[in-house]
Write a structure and sequence with these properties.
Blueprint: H1 2-13, E1 39-41, H2 44-52, E2 59-61, H3 86-92, E3 96-99, H4 105-113, E4 117-120, H5 127-140, H6 144-165, E5 171-178, E6 183-184, H7 190-197, E7 200-202, H8 214-220, E8 224-229, H9 234-244, H10 251-254, E9 258-262, H11 271-285, H12 287-298
Parallel strand pairs: 1-2, 1-3, 3-4, 5-7, 5-8, 8-9
Antiparallel strand pairs: 5-6
Length: 301
């Protein structure tokens, strides 16, 4: 299970680099205007979006990797992200199945042969396409207006942080997203875009493989180090932070700027959590500016 989670995390780490447009405008095709009242979600990001849209009453089933918000009623589990139970989905009698690119083609075809409509969402490649996906899910769930309002608010926050950061002196940053080997986020990935939008310079942006050594980190000597983990891996993140704190020559260690980011949204954000996570990065990279910005940021709720 840990290997599957890591695979999902690293896949999501390769996403989202673009800047949002405000206000959000997107043409929705005639086919996308069809809304459904009973949907099975085959992806954690899809499920997160449905809950943020307030459309969970139309959610008939989820995967074992999907997170149900605290206080919400549990949903039938139809398998994992990559291995679904076709018979269970058929039993649930959904209007449609929302699939991710991790869903196996053979299983998608099996559902279609049973007359079940399967809508497969591509992985977002930047903030704009993340918002595209959110709006498409919202429209399919009969929540188009709600989706547009959520996107506008999130995009405004992202732009506010980015525009503030542009006027600040850039600080060098290293982010660790894997342990053995030491894995980082390259330029052109959405995790690297968090650093760039928040006024940082990703010191490992041009590795070509995402693999970086501690020796290279010591040579680059970043101002800030992030250790990003999935939410259930906080212990591992803290252990990695402790390991970094032994390198006393690092500026990030001297100034106590080694931070553990134990948030799933670092790897798999919705428009809402993208904006929140960007603020988290900004608060660590430019803490003084972030303190001044927070009162302004809350006015965009």
């Amino acid at each position: 299970m840990k290997k599957i989670l890591l695979g999902v995390a690293l896949m999501m780490a390769g996403l989202m680099t673009g800047l949002p447009a405000v206000p959000w405008v997107r043409t929705v095709s005639a086919a996308e205007q069809t809304s459904f009242t009973r949907v099975v979600s085959l992806g954690p990001l899809i499920t997160d979006m449905i809950y943020q849209l307030g459309a969970e009453s139309h959610l008939a089933g989820v995967t074992s990797y999907c997170t149900i918000p605290e206080g919400k009623q549990s949903k039938p589990v139809i398998g994992t992200v990559i291995q679904i139970n076709v018979e269970e989905i058929i039993r649930l009698q959904p209007d449609a199945v929302f699939a991710s690119t991790l869903t196996r083609i053979k299983q998608v075809e099996a559902l279609k042969r049973q007359g079940i409509q399967v809508i497969q969402f591509d992985n977002p490649t930047n903030f704009d396409t993340l918002c595209d996906m959110f709006l498409a899910v919202g429209t399919r769930m009969g929540k188009k207006q709600a989706a547009q309002e959520i996107i506008r608010a999130a995009a405004a926050k992202v732009n506010l942080i980015h525009n503030t950061a542009k006027n600040l002196k850039k600080r060098t940053v290293f982010i660790q997203i894997g342990i053995k080997p030491l894995k980082t986020a390259e330029q052109g990935t959405f995790i690297s875009s968090y650093i760039e939008l928040a006024g940082g310079i990703n010191i490992a942006g041009h590795t070509g493989s995402g693999i970086f050594s501690r020796e290279h980190v010591l040579k680059k000597n970043p101002d800030v180090i992030f250790v990003a983990t999935m939410g259930t891996s906080t212990k591992a993140g803290n252990a990695e932070k402790a390991a970094w704190m032994n390198f006393f020559a690092l500026n990030a260690v001297k100034n106590n700027e080694v931070h553990v980011l134990a948030h799933d949204s670092v790897f798999s954000p919705t428009p809402v959590t993208f904006a929140r996570t960007l603020m988290l990065f900004f608060s660590h990279i430019h803490p003084n500016a972030a303190k001044k910005l927070k009162p302004m940021e809350t006015t965009l709720e």
